[in-house]
Write a structure and sequence with these properties.
The chain has about 200 residues and is mostly helical. Helices cover about 55% and strands about 5% of the residues. It is found in: Cell membrane.
Length: about 200
Amino acid sequence: PRAVPSFVLFQIAALERQIFDFLGYQWVPILANFLHIMAVILGIFGTIQYRSKYLIMYAVWLVLWVGWNAFIICFYLEVGHLSQDRDFIMTFNTSLHRSWWMENGPGCLVTPVLNSKLAPEDHHVITVSGCLLDYQYIEVVSSAAQIFLALFGFVYACYVSKVFLEEEDSFDFIGGFDSYGYQAPQKTSHLQLQPLYT
């Protein structure tokens, strides 16, 4: 219960990320964020209800979450063969939408290019200039923050689930069966069944 404020921080960070991914129509991150929000709720429930299994499931999810955020960092920094201009992984290859921060980053000036032959149907071409921080780096910082929070949450979930499991193992059932030499009550002679003759 004392850790619930840290879970609130995890939830706020996940909701912030979800909002900006919705604004950019980034469908794959939206789905991943939704699963992460559900996992954080599971972690909160496991902490409040003293359920170590839920915390273990939360810890397993956090390993996947770190991997996902590492992929996002690699994607936006175009590590290896990944390319933002060629790969539309974040939208399930259904649209040309990009990060919301591309056009709305701090200090960015967006200028539409009129009559561009490069624009696909129902899209327009823009130029973005004057950004104080490019959108790729905003996405990288956001993912790095998620990794940091996930590592903290993983350590917390492992520690608390271990404490819960130790408490379950040492729980003493009404004085304990072993400590007092529990024996089942014996039948007394007046309770024994007697044959009935008619």
